[in-house]
Amino acid sequence: MKLRIAFSLAATVLFIAAPQAHTQGHLSDPYQVLERHFEAIGGLDKLKAEKTSRSEGTIVLVGTGLSGTVKAWAEAPDRQRQELDLAVLKQTSGDNGQTSWTVDINGKVQIVKDKAALKRRELGRLMALYEYADPSSTNFTLTFTGIEKVGEVDCYVIEIENAINDDILRQFINRTSFYLQKSVAIRPDDEEHTVYSDYREIGGIMRAFRQDIEALPVGQKATVEMTSYEVGIEIDPALFEPPEKDAADFRFVVGGSAVSVPFQFIENHIFMQVNVSGKERLWLLDSGADISVVDSAYAEELGLKQEGSLTGVGAGNKVQISFVMLPPFSVGGIQFNEQSVGSAGFVSSLVRRHMGMDAVGILGYDFLSRFVTRIDYAGETLTFYNADSFVYDGNGVVLDASIKGKCHSVPMAVEGKYNGVWSLDLGAGGCSFHYPFADENSLLKMDGIRRLGFGAGGSSENLVLQFQNLEFAGFEIKNPRVSAPLSKGVGAFSRKELIGNLGSSLFRHFVLYLDYERQQVIVEKGADFDRQFPEDRSGLQLVQSETGESEVVFVAPHTPADKAGFRIGDVIASVNAINSEYLAGLIGLRKMLREEAGIRYTFRVLREGREKELKLELKDLL
Questions:
Q1: What letter does residue 555 receive in the DSSP assignment?
Q2: Which domain holds residue 355?
């Protein structure tokens, strides 16, 4: 399951010219437009001379019920610190001139090592040095693209491209005043549109004290209004350094530095018991989730106050996340202090509908990142190690796996040609290409089986493809199945900077160690490495209806289920004269549909109030 919180605050305060009188002669040279802009705001030399700044302001996430404060410190060209405080959601990030770092809502420190982020960091440094304004720069290319309106204002549009990455910055400069009216930052996976207003003079430079920001494609809006701005001040260099230690928010109950916990591996998902307020309930373990999430109904049962409503993205679409303070809880022999977590209405209903089980929460990045976690799929055992004292002495393969979007990113190759960096997602049942990569490589034109995929953002139709092999950590897996979404959507699977998402259909062959501190993944052969896991041989997909019955949700074209005459909405009454209540629910039915090719079943289904008999013969689909 993918779950991303789709908001980031651009901490850099842009320098905006106040309206001044200029001639309205048409300019077409982008460098001339920039020159006039810098003249209007007090001069490029004065901007370059500024070495330090400190600002404070208020922030409102429009339509979410969340508001708070933002603080920023900067020392040119690359030292910075930002603090965002929305009460229930606090985030801090910074850069000491050598490394960038972040601190999550519960105090976990993460050093930024993702290659794309490091390139973006270098780009930001060069922008802060105003190299883009130099016509002789080998790093930047400026293009005048015409005149466009921002509201009722005519603006020169300058497009800034660079030789470091694929990011593009568009600046809309007012034709009359020559101040920046709007900017559009275009990255491979998202855009940020910012409109500027309320100009005030600080240190001889006119600056925008208000920014209205919209993050696309999710449409999350924010308004930032500065309340103070200082330049040329002394800043303690220690302010830019990452915290030396994480927050001490957990302990191993019986001492020591590791604990092993059993889990249930059901339908390619990991479920484990979590004890909150003395009661144990099942939770899903999901490294693809930015934050841990409790079901809204469970939060109400616990008497937790739910605050705000922030936009996030699942695998294929948007979701809404509120925030609660989860009371102290325990997982096996680990006791946690209270934690700030998300709250959403889809958790229990999603698991119940698609697995027929009762689960009330998701343990995500904020849980997993505090440990080195060993996942033994065949043994159905999780071992959590204290990251500070963990030392690996096995013979597994150690992969560099930088954290990207709070998720490990690892290399993997399909048939030696579809290769690149993938997201490691314990919450995903299968492996999937992202739509941009699948589209660019014509994978959607290959022969495959259509199937619905489900996640936090709802359902989406995918094409399941059979390949000869894949290579992961130097190990070869034969005859893997990798799916591709048939439409781009606005979810995590629409991202371009990674080529796909890896899930438990691959990892069940291995023993994995997830090390967030060192940003590594260790891979060992598992007891099931050579096992051929059975796949569906029907083309039939079932869910649990609101009344607890097994209901057909999708019938793949040209499969045995299609030929047998199944339709969406059919309710399973019996199989081979055994009533559905004796068939172990969805999990039992799906197991039957994975039996050997040639096995025949006689189904009785209820369709529009009438009973109908359908005969199904299993066969290999790919």
A1: E
A2: 250-375
